[in-house]
Amino acid sequence: MKLNFIFLLLCLFIFSGCSINTSNAKNASPAITVAAAGSLTNAFTELGAAFEQHNDVKVSFVFGSTGMLSEQIRNGAPYDIIAAADEVSIENLYQKGFIYADSINLYAIGRIGIVSNKKNLIHINTLDDLLKPEIVKIAIATPEHAPYGLAAKEALVSSGLWDHLESKIVYGKNISEALTFVTTGNAEVGIIALSLKDEELNFNIIDDNLHTPLYKSMAVTTNAQNEKLARSFINFVISTEGQEIMSKYGLISPEE
After folding, report:
1. DSSP 50
2. What's the mean pLDDT in 78-84?
3. Cα separations (Å) of 111 from 7, 13, 153, 193, 196?
4. DSSP letters of 233-245?
5. 108-158 pLDDT, tens digit each
6. Cα distances (Å, whole numbers) of residue 185 to 15, 178, 179, 182, 206
7. Which domain does 74 fall in, by range?
8. In terms of domains, do 153 and 167 share one?
9. What one-character DSSP code corresponds to residue 253?
10. What CATH number does residue 62 fall under?
11. Which Pfam families match (predicted)?
């Protein structure tokens, strides 16, 4: 009798535990994971918080170079969305079957500029100033993987400065790492996204005629775990509210 009673209590404990776990699973908020270019770190962090508040959902981000994120998607990474720093990467993923064609949207235009730490006494106003002897290292993102790095190289080539400055260039694996080289003093200056500048940095915009325009596209991936919610997030990014948030970080609306 005693053994039967203990067995009954054990069963009740197990089943009540299962019931609680099931309830928690049912009550969990819907979630998506967004793979986003490093240049979007500040803007998308705010966008994600606003979207979560409006919809009672969870948005997680993986920030990195567009090339690296694209490679991860091709290898099966379960990202719901990729927000690239260019258009070409989205087109390439679509051609290989990793993107829903009807989900592709142009969502912003980026700008680049020369950045230096306000703590040092180096004053850089133009690309020609990068020739100064006190400039030993110039940080940019790797052009092969990061559209902002490619734009930086194009600007230097267009200005006739690349051959003179190439030996000074240090490469970050993405635009955020290039910025870190500057903020940590491992490079005197860098060429980074306007969307990443902050009050601790001197920033001078680069003429966008010197490089290929940084039109940015985003789309839902065919690896998506929650396609419907992913499409809703993209709609939010291109909405009036979403574009107002983006503009705070120097990301230009494609409608302008």
Report:
1. H
2. 98
3. 68, 60, 14, 6, 10
4. HHHHHTSHHHHHH
5. 999 999 999 888 878 888 999 999 999 999 999 999 999 999 999 999 999
6. 58, 11, 10, 5, 22
7. 31-109+214-249
8. yes
9. P
10. 3.40.190.10
11. SBP_bac_11
Known binding residue 29? Answer is: no
Q: Are residues 236 and 194 in the same domain?
A: no
Entry pTM: 0.84
Q: How far is CA 206 from CA 19, 216, 254, in A?
A: 59, 18, 19
| 66 annotated ligand binder | yes
With beta carbons less than 8 A apart as the criterion, state whether 40 and 146 touch.
no
Claim to verify: residue 180 and residue 124 sit in the same structural domain: yes
- Give tens-digit pLDDT for 216-225: 999 999 999 9
Query: Is the confidence at residue 6, as pLDDT, over 60?
Result: no
Same domain, 40 and 82: yes
At 52, the amino acid letter reads: E
| pLDDT greater than 70 at residue 24 | no
Mean pLDDT of the chain: 89
Task: Compute the average pLDDT of residues 45-73.
Answer: 96
| Structure tokens given for 11 | 């069963």
Residues 222 and 98 grouped into a single domain: yes
What are the start-end ranges of the H helices in 109-146? none
Closest to 245 measured CA to CA, from 42, 72, 95: 42
Asked if residue 27 has pLDDT above 90, the reply is no
Is 60 annotated to bind a ligand? Reply is no
CB atoms within 10 A of CB 131: 12
Are residues 143 and 126 part of one domain?
yes
Q: Is the residue at 18 inside a domain?
A: no
Please state which of the ranges 1-5, 61-65, 184-188 shows the lowest mean pLDDT: 1-5
| Total count of domains within the chain | 2
